[in-house]
DNA sequence: CCTGCCTCCTTAATCAATTAAGACCTTAAT
DNA sequence: ATTAAGGTCTTAATTGATTAAGGAGGCAGG
């Protein structure tokens, strides 16, 4: 079972390789009769058509879009926000008839060969921490690039929301309800696996730009309302899971004085905080208000959250990369919206 | 900004292309000094390293695994079962340092070019209906193939569960609790978009082998217990969503006599059935028992379901395709397990 | 008969690399 | 001095296709 190429078929039929190529890719350049015989021999030899790699090389297009996540894929797909974004992007790829090449970036691993070796026409980068080596590798490839959420790369299109504004919107909501004792649970600030309390300087040093911005928004709104941010208990997680949220919830709710409102930067985390409240027999929203983020898992739980256009962002990323027109660099900010549900209410009256 | 290749660098330095290639791929074949200069010039010219496509062609490997879903990706990722499987596969791909090329197969579309043109080393096919043209295309490529869930292709490895046994296990559970008036809601039997009642001959003609098998299991267990299957109301859906489940639930619960137990082939559908029951003020499990499938979204809702090893199946698929050793053809069946939670109980006493 | 025009096919350059084999020079051992 | 052994680089074949340009033959019109 030697390898079968165009040449094999050409030799069998006593024609040139070029003719066989035309038979496959431009039927009208070849007589119907000869084309029939070409297909016949191809079938007989089990030839499935021109080798895609060779074709890609000659044509200069790969027929695929590269996708980079910071997280292990197993994590990425556990996050409903990522799934929503992915759906939008996948639909765009479908429409364009190109594949989506998901590139593995093992956690903490500095090996970036996958990026170097990826057979793609463009890259979509999602949520990479500042200074991640894979990003340099992507930029070195000199292919069209779109960055989603973070980090902003001057000279390339960026898609996301106005994070500080969205964060401020969430915080202002509870502040306007009258809350003054806040607590915060956030995931995805740093890449170092830290779990636990985080002071202001550590918060500010977060390596993920989007989450840093979201937090800045929290702080700005809090200070605007006269809350001393340095006193706001801030619990950091390394995994975006319900269980992690519960852990943060227990830590925050054990603080003295106990927060009356907890801000989280993902809905999944917020669900975990609700679990913690339930564990302690606290009434939500009577005794505790909880705000999520993304409106990805919030509806059933009646969670107040910030909605962002996940799928639209994915679709737009696809359009920019596959649409042919060279994308304009600069930030494209998508709208966000506060969705008030049943997890927030005014704080309980102060104990006398 | 002309194209920069190995040759460009070679010319600049007055060395041969081969030398530059060695500098990149086999540092010890070239003097340290020259290698340094090569890298210097490469940097200066903005050369990111050998062209991946040309490399792939020459080396004969693509560095990617092709993945085929029957569904639009947007659907596929809405299903927690698919996400779980995908996580397992992605982890295996990560370990092997290869990418995962997701191939778009627009619904009903007969265009299979994406499969023909995919630059991959192997294919993983998930849940394709019988006779889907993309499968022929995949087989024609003569690359390693693993099929997951369906359809079974003689001569290639197959991974999945014993569907008839799993279906029978689910049905037997409610039958043994004493239920005799069953109802069934299933998605993914046919590819024709049909929504509504389905008679036995249509059920039997389902084009998705796995779901057909699962249904066969339901029927076998029912008949074993003396239930006349032709009388069992059977509602078919075309989308696996909670809303679809609710629709099926309403249809089934309006049947006369009303079923006391409803079997569904996905957890998501089961959640929708629970919604319908809640709409009607029916107590679950007091007045109605509901069984899901996959244990993918069941835990929080207290759903009785069949657990299957989603991630393990994905991981094994990856291992078979990337492990180097040629995979043995034939079926590999993974274990399944009945998880009894709070959605099933004995039927209410017959009205006198 | 000559010319022009089709149709159908071939020639040959090209895409961007990898790598076995060989050339050339230096150094070390016999 | 001779030979062998390394180290470093070059030559040239190879991977499997695409496609512009050109040639051969047939046919119609002047």
From TrEMBL, chains A, B:
**All copies of domain HTH lacI-type, residue ranges:** 4-59
Q: The organism sits in which domain of life?
A: Bacteria
Question: Which UniProt keywords are given for this protein, alphabetically ordered?
Answer: DNA-binding, Transcription, Transcription regulation
One GO MF term attached to the UniProt entry: DNA binding
This protein's record includes keyword DNA-binding: yes
| KW DNA-binding (keyword) present | yes
Q: Which residues form the signal peptide?
A: none
Protein name, UniProt field: DNA-binding LacI/PurR family transcriptional regulator
Name the species this protein comes from.
Answer: Nonomuraea roseoviolacea subsp. carminata
């Amino acid at each position: 079972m030697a390898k079968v190429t165009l040449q094999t078929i050409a030799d069998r039929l006593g024609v040139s390789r070029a003719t066989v190529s035309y038979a496959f890719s431009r039927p009208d350049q070849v007589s119907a009769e000869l084309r029939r015989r070409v297909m016949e021999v191809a079938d007989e030899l089990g030839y499935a058509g021109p080798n895609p790699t060779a074709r890609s090389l000659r044509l200069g297009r790969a027929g695929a879009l590269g996708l980079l996540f910071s997280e292990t894929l197993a994590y990425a797909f556990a996050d409903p926000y990522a799934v929503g974004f992915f759906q939008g992007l996948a639909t765009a790829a479908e429409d364009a008839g190109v594949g989506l090449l998901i590139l593995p970036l093992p956690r903490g691993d500095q090996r970036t060969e996958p990026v170097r070796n990826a057979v793609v026409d463009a890259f979509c980068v999602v949520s990479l921490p500042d200074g991640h080596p894979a990003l340099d590798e992507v930029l070195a490839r000199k292919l069209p690039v779109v960055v989603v959420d973070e980090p902003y790369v001057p000279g390339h299109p960026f898609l996301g929301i106005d994070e500080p504004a969205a964060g401020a919107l969430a915080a202002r909501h509870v502040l306007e309800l009258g809350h003054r004792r806040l607590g915060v649970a956030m995931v995805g600030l740093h890449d170092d696996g830290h779990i636990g309390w985080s002071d202001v300087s550590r918060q500010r040093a977060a390596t993920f730009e989007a989450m840093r911005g979201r937090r800045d928004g929290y702080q700005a709104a809090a200070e605007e309302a006269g809350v001393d941010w340095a006193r706001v208990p801030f619990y950091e997680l390394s995994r975006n899971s319900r269980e992690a949220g519960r852990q943060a919830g227990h830590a925050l709710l054990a603080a003295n004085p106990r927060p009356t409102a907890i801000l989280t930067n993902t809905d999944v985390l917020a669900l975990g905080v609700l679990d913690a409240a339930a564990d302690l027999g606290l009434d939500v929203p009577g005794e505790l208000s909880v705000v999520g983020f993304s409106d990805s898992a919030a509806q059933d739980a009646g969670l107040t959250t910030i909605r962002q256009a996940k799928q639209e962002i994915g679709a737009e990323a696809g359009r920019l990369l596959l649409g042919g027109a060279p994308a304009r660099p600069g930030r494209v900010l998508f709208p966000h919206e506060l969705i008030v549900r049943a997890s927030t209410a005014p704080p309980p009256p102060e104990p006398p």
